[in-house]
Design goal:
This protein has three helices and no strands. By secondary structure, it is an all-alpha fold. The longest helix is centred in the last third of the chain and has 21 residues.
């Protein structure tokens, strides 16, 4: 597992008020949905700040 994946697991666990162990019981589809959601959210925020790349 890459460091960024592990960091995201802890980030998401904190955001959802869950433990990392609880997060790992989540279905792969749901986890992927959260990854996509937060990835797109970060992109929108970057674009809003004027940082296109």
């Amino acid at each position: 597992m890459e460091t960024t994946d592990l960091e995201f697991e802890y980030y998401l666990a904190e955001r959802l008020s869950r433990t990392v162990a609880e997060m790992r019981q989540m279905s792969g589809g749901e986890y992927t949905g959260w990854v996509v959601y937060y990835g797109r959210k970060a992109q929108r925020e970057q674009l809003a700040r004027g940082g296109g790349g």
